[in-house]
Design a protein that fits this description.
- By secondary structure, this protein is mostly beta strands.
- The chain is 8% helix and 26% strand.
- It has 2 helices and 9 strands.
- The strands form 2 sheets. A 5-stranded antiparallel beta sheet has the order 1-2-7-5-6, with no helix packed on it. The protein has a 4-stranded antiparallel beta sheet with strand order 4-3-8-9, with no helix packed on it.
- A hairpin with a 4-residue loop joins β3 and β4.
Length: 242
């Protein structure tokens, strides 16, 4: 019994000390119940100058929407056409200068006595084109600037005289204005070659052959837009026997 007393007393001391510890988590205490000072919080470290932390990049700027340029925008498209026929009216057809080596002379193909001729053929040359304005402003002063005929070898043969431009929707002369978003179908009449087969024959041929066509390029000018062109393959109107 005497040997157990020290152990019992130590047990009571430990129980009594545990009852005196306040319930403050995170605060250290010594064994006899005294409160220890907590460790001081570490001071803020100065920012590193050798490897600074990259900052977040700014959000990208949205791509600006381009402001549409106000103005007309003309487009021409070849539709159909022919080089005409002037065998019965050669004076109305186009003949290049004699020095050029192309075409016939005045009087070629003239029918002196229509009642005894085996053919009658006189039709003015024409080309039909679609012209539209894809811009935001009216196009004004539209006119035919040039009508140029090329051989199938892409060599220019002649610049043909313009005669008239007609709006096919009204059958009236085209006034030269095209509203924004408007499209018009135009018929352009011109003086076709009097002797198209000689004019369009290959340059290395004898100059007389049937069946040759050409490429007609029609160019439009405008008061407030650049020139626009459209080209297409053309052939003479066949002679009709009567």
């Amino acid at each position: 019994m005497t040997r157990l007393l020290p152990s019992i007393c130590l047990l009571f001391l430990l129980v009594g000390c545990a009852d005196t510890v306040p319930d403050r988590p995170g605060t250290p205490f010594c064994a006899d119940g005294c409160e220890l000072e907590p460790d001081p919080a570490p001071a803020d470290e100065p920012p590193s100058t050798t490897n600074p932390r990259p900052s977040e990049p700014p959000p990208p700027n949205p791509t600006p929407t381009p402001t549409p340029v106000e103005g007309p925008a003309l487009f021409a498209v070849f539709v159909a056409g022919h080089l005409g026929s002037y065998e019965s009216c050669p004076e109305e057809g186009y003949a290049p200068d004699a020095d050029s080596g192309f075409g016939g002379t005045d009087g070629d193909g003239v029918c002196e006595d229509p009642d005894n001729c085996s053919f009658q053929s006189c039709e003015v040359a024409q080309v039909t084109l679609s012209l539209r304005n894809d811009g935001e402003v009216i196009a004004t002063g539209i006119d035919v600037a040039q009508i140029e005929l090329f051989g199938l070898d892409n060599v220019s043969r002649a610049v043909l005289p313009w005669l008239a431009t007609t709006d096919t929707a009204t059958n009236e002369p085209f006034d030269g204005d095209l509203e924004a978003g408007e499209e018009v179908l135009l018929r352009v009449e011109y003086r076709g070659p009097r002797d198209p087969y000689s004019l369009l024959a290959p340059l290395d041929s004898d100059g007389v052959a049937n069946g040759y066509g050409g490429i007609l390029e029609t160019t439009f000018s405008s008061d407030n837009y650049d020139d626009v062109s459209a080209a297409g393959e053309m052939y003479p109107v066949p002679t009709v026997d009567t």
